[in-house]
């Protein structure tokens, strides 16, 4: 992946993350009963799902930042325990 593509993706996901933070804070503060984010309407009941989306977006921003700085992206791996 080239640097220009990484920068575009990083900018997109950073903006997405900012919007998610704003929605979460508005709902958490109790100042609004619902919040419209793009084409969906969120309520306080959606805070758990919104929190998961924030976590995913933060991981994506971290991954793209690492790629931009010349580091390798984090890769997930599984450990399978054996009972011997």
Automatic annotation (TrEMBL):
Domain of life: Bacteria
Coiled-coil ranges (or none): 40-74
Alphabetically ordered keywords of this record: Coiled coil
Descriptive protein name: Uncharacterized protein
Organism: Faecalibacterium prausnitzii L2-6
């Amino acid at each position: 992946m080239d640097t220009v593509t990484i920068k575009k993706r990083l900018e997109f996901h950073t903006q997405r993350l900012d919007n998610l933070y704003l929605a979460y804070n508005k709902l958490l503060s109790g100042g609004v009963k619902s919040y419209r984010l793009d084409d969906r309407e969120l309520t306080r009941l959606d805070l758990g799902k919104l929190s998961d989306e924030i976590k995913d977006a933060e991981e994506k921003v971290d991954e793209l930042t690492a790629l931009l700085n010349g580091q390798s992206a984090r890769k997930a791996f599984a450990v399978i325990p054996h009972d011997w």
